[in-house]
Structures are given as C-alpha cells and as structure tokens.
Amino acid sequence: MSIPVAFEVVKKPHPFRDIKTRKAKRAAEFTKNELMRSMIATCVANAIKFRYVLTDSWFAAKENFEFILKKGKHFISALKDNRLVALTEKDKNEGRYVRISQLELADQQAVRGWMKGSGNCSCVALPPASMQSSTMKFCSSGGSLQTKTAAPVC
Q1: Phi, psi angle pair for 91, to nearest 5°
Q2: Contact between residue 137 and residue 110 where contact means Cβ atoms under 8 Å apart
Q3: Could you say which residues of the chain have pLDDT below 70?
C-alpha cells in the first residue's frame, strides 16, 4: 500500500519584476527540491517506515538522489529522454554517455547504468512500454530488478 505522508504547498511571498518582460512575479523562499528533501528528512526523523522515494522527473537531480541514498533509502524516478547515461562502468569512467532517447531497448528491458552527474551511484533504468514516451523510470540499485506490473522494484 502506498499513501502520501507529507505534502507542502509552495508559497511565493516575495514579489519581484521579471527583467525581460517587466511583469510582476512572485518568488518562493525555498525551491521545490529543498522542500522535497525537507519532507524526506522529516519522515526519517519521525521514524516512518519506508524504503523508497518515488518522484517525477522534476526531482531527478544528483543532489536529490545523493540525499535520499544518504538517508539509507532508495529512489524511483522518471528521467526525461534528454538525460545522458553510460551503460558500462568503463564508459562512465571514460566519459562516454548516450542520450536516453538514443537507447535501443525492448519494451520493459531493464539496463544497469550511470546517469551523468550521479557520481558512483549505479542505477537501473527501465523504459516505458513505448519509447515514444519522454521519460524512463530510474531507480537506485540495491537489489534485484523485478517487473511485476509496470513498475520497477529495486
């Protein structure tokens, strides 16, 4: 069973003017990524039992992945098809990355690789049922990948 355990309304209390358009806008005190990390930290501090953090592509960033892993948790995230990945450790070490959109994978074929900028985090990627979609699922490795229904379990 999955239930939401935290949410945050994004508040934008700081008015400013856009330099190019001169339109009035509002800025938030904290970024959405900072709010996400704060919610995860609160869940850990409150001893909520969970192993995985599920995010959309908005939160697919090295800093977030490292934060989640440092908390002893795993993540499952969507990646946009313009992200760069290396499919072997040798390719990663030599800086050879390929765009996700250029991967030729069968539907639901799991591959282990490294997202550019994710450090030493070895991860598993699973394409959507149709590569015409703009995202792939990406999760921290920490176990075997199984495909029960459409979601990966790492």
Answers
A1: -60, -40
A2: no
A3: 107-108, 119-154
